[in-house]
Design a protein that fits this description.
This protein is mainly alpha-helical and 277 residues long. It is built from 13 helices and three strands; from the N terminus they run H-H-H-H-H-H-H-E-E-E-H-H-H-H-H-H. The longest helix has 19 residues.
Length: 277
């Protein structure tokens, strides 16, 4: 079994289907791991049946202690591989984990956000944090932002080919603009708004470390990630009376049900205030 050739062919199919670079990378990684093990017993993917796939998933759960999200990615990737290359519908729906229990996203209060921003002296890092919170960007959206995507005249940010391969427009808060212009003059990015030392887009890991370290400096003990800032953006908008449909558009959620999770957070916040007084 020529795994490299199969992965290359799979990648070509995914590109034609307009999947994002991040999704393609995840699909390829999961399928490559599966095929590298399967080739010891099978000479072609067509020889691999559903039982063999089930045994592989079970092995990953028991041997590698993978979580439900990782399990879902593995099954979805294998499913996509067979559909894309062989137009084959696998009977593996039972291998998807049951939906995880309802859990509220981790959020910061406004004072915590302010402490994080005020305690970040590096202008590049401060702009990153302000963009994540002020515009509610996903991590992947932030690192893929190009200078041309910023419309400072209209105070808008164009998000190109976001999750689900959809474009959208979000607001650029005035509070960011001054820092952003200072950053641009000092760092002189070439193509991407935030670039690494050797050029190209800033890495996801670097952004995660920027946020983590900033939260630590601010004395915040709970886990803070780039997505925490996005969650906080949505929650604070809702608390200030912003229409949930508008928040859905800003976040780029396909379903309103995804956005409605923030109503639970605001309900809890209101009940805490009532108990306090």
């Amino acid at each position: 079994m020529d795994v490299d050739r199969l992965i290359l062919e799979f990648e070509r199919k995914l590109v034609l289907q307009r999947y994002s670079a991040n999704s393609i990378s995840n699909y390829k990684s999961s399928v490559r791991s599966f095929l590298n093990l399967a080739k010891e017993k099978f000479s072609h993917p067509s020889e691999i049946d559903e039982l063999a796939i089930e045994k592989y998933v079970l092995w990953k759960i028991e041997k590698h202690k993978i979580g439900s999200s990782h399990q879902r990615m593995i099954v979805a990737s294998i499913d996509k591989f067979y559909k894309s290359l062989y137009d084959q519908e696998l009977k593996i729906k039972h291998l998807y984990p049951s939906r995880k229990a309802f859990s509220l996203p981790n959020c910061l209060n406004i004072d915590e956000v302010k402490r994080i921003i005020d305690g970040t002296e590096n202008i590049k890092h401060r702009c990153i944090i302000k963009m994540l919170y002020g515009s509610g960007l996903r991590l992947s959206e932030l690192i893929n932002l190009k200078i041309a995507d910023i419309d400072s005249a209209r105070m808008l940010i164009h998000i190109i080919k976001s999750k689900g391969s959809k474009d959208r427009v979000v607001t650029l808060p005035e509070s960011i603009l001054s820092d952003l212009r200072t950053y641009y003059i000092l760092y002189k990015p070439d193509l991407y708004l935030f670039e690494g030392q050797s050029g190209g887009s800033y890495s996801a890991k670097s952004v995660q470390m920027v946020v983590k370290n900033a939260a630590s400096r601010a004395g915040i003990r709970k886990k803070v990630t780039p997505h925490t800032l996005r969650h906080s953006f949505a929650t604070h908008l809702l608390e200030n009376g912003t229409d949930i449909r508008y928040i859905q558009e800003l976040l780029g959620h396909k379903s309103i049900k995804t956005t409605e999770i923030y109503t639970h957070i605001t309900d809890i916040s209101k009940s805490n205030i009532k108990r306090r007084y």
